[in-house]
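Input chain follows. Return structure tokens only.
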Amino acid sequence: MMLASEFLSWAMTLAFAAVAISQLLALVRLVIGPNTGDRILALDTMVVNAIGLIVLVGMSQGTRLYFEAALIIAMLGFVSTVAYARFVLRGDIIE
């Protein structure tokens, strides 16, 4: 029977691999996206995946600093995605 620490180590490794693969697939979509909407969505997905990786690093190292950084990046990622989408749709960010 597996110990709890072995199971947690295995689960963290699997989570890192899954998020890393997701990040690579979003990068592929960013590069070969047929239109601008696909590229914006890929960038937003990459921000979410980066947040996931930062949270996983924080969990594996047992520190709270990474969670605060993940919150800041989440806020910046949301604002930047909205601003870029408005720029693409309207040609101007500020009305």
